Records
---
Amino acid sequence: MTKNDVVDPMALRNALGCFTTGVTVVTTCNDGVDAGVTVNSFNSVSLDPPMVLWSLAKSAGSFNTYHTADHFAVHILAADQEPISQRFATRGIDKFAEVDFHRGVGGVPILDGCSAVFHCKTVYRYEGGDHEIYVGHVEKLEHFDRKALVFHGGKYALAVPKKKPEALVDDVRSRGFSANSLTYLMGLVYFQLMKRASTELKKRGITETEMAVLNILAIEDKRTAAEIDSLVQVSGYRVDDAVLRAMAEKKLLSLTDDDGVLRSTLQDAGRELQLEQLAFIQALEDDALPDEAYAETVLAKDLLKATARKLLQAE
Ligand SMILES: Cc1cc2nc3c(=O)[nH]c(=O)nc-3n(C[C@H](O)[C@H](O)[C@H](O)COP(=O)(O)O)c2cc1C
């Protein structure tokens, strides 16, 4: 085949990048040698008989291992397995060193935590330019209820199902909220979660402001009331020496006089309370989120972080 002078390889790569794929790791074991590569050239071929394909660069370090292997396994990576994808796309490392796996059909290493695994017998190999194409007969499959990792435009992505708009708004609107306003929606969720969190704080005998102080001191001790105040006021709390003194009485922190300025240091009781409350809030959020909302949660947090950054820059 002649070299193509018309299609620029970079332009080809970029254009192919707009075809969204999942991410897989293909593993094999040949003559006692384990190999694994990150692959997004995977695709289905046939349902009956069950067949799949993928292609491997002839320049891959593990090319000889796959070229003569009888079996391979395709792992569809789950949304939280980006580190696994990066590991198996890195040349020259012991890819299986810190990874949990067991053996599957043909003794092939099978990685834990994926969305699906296809155990295959290699049935065809095709010439494919700078790649070799492998077609496998699926001998066994495993399918788990985990959302898949996505690759688009050269970046990892998350798949979020498009929801019917009416399903999203009806519930919220019926309670008199403007379902299209981020402010109202955030307010509703924040108020409902904080109501529960505050009840827990009251049980523990501290206020929301005191909890905000504990959070700041957990990051760095020896702060003054003014320093803590400037950090917490973005969330609407205000802190002065009286707040710190009340907390010192509860043995949550200790105070030292630094040339007339009070500096606070977290005590064991304060540290313990802060960790317990954080765990409580995490459990509250986990319970409140709809099931299977991993991708949406990551995206919502990213959106709120970017919004917070923009608002704080504008202050
Ligand atoms: C998302 C993603 C998809 C990839 N898809 C393929 C592929 O389909 N075929 C391929 O040969 N390499 C692919 N690679 C690159 C290989 O994973 C990488 O070059 C790997 O280290 C090659 O294996 P080696 O360590 O045996 O050289 C991909 C990398 C990433 C990050």
---
Amino acid sequence: MNSYQKEQLEALQIIRSHMAVLKTELLHIIEAPLKEYFLFRSQTDKFLSDHFSRICSLSCYQNRLSACCSKDGIITFFADVVLNTLSSSEAELDRIEAIIKKPNTGYKCVYLAPEGCVWRVKPIVCQMFLCDKAEEDVFGKNPIVQEEWELLKKRKKDFIWPDKIVLFDQIESIFIAAGCSSTLMYLNKSPGLLRIKRQAGLIKK
Ligand code: SF4
């Protein structure tokens, strides 16, 4: 396993080993933002399916024509892994662990299986990624669709951008309070994101 695979596996294993204890707390404390997030995700899915399914096909990934899924180290937030864990069966999570452990040939994402992405709720970075060709094709013909996309991108920030209390930080904080630590906890470890929290008065100077 390379270092990316190791940190992915470590985060997933930490989350799985604490989920039995933290699940009730998680669902209680973040019930409202969680519902809002899943609504946002299903609205984004619908948008992508309505406007991009014609272009973004599985064969595009398989032919390596697309930039999506062709990077071996896509950014995943700790909260992405938690949200996917909450939405997946134990068998699905076992499969993800097994896939992470396999040697990666390097030209594609470690999570890309022959049938597509193995995540049930794929990372937010992936959900909001559109390649230039797809954007040109769709937005070039329909600026109103582009406006809709810009609104979805703005809403994404409400969950991950820590200039206020956001779901992704709340999730990290619950695991940190339980004694967990992961390099994927960017909202509590990335100097840039910590600076934003400081500027917003969410943490001490
Ligand atoms: S996590 Fe899934 S959607 Fe994201 S790049 Fe990997 S295979 Fe593609």
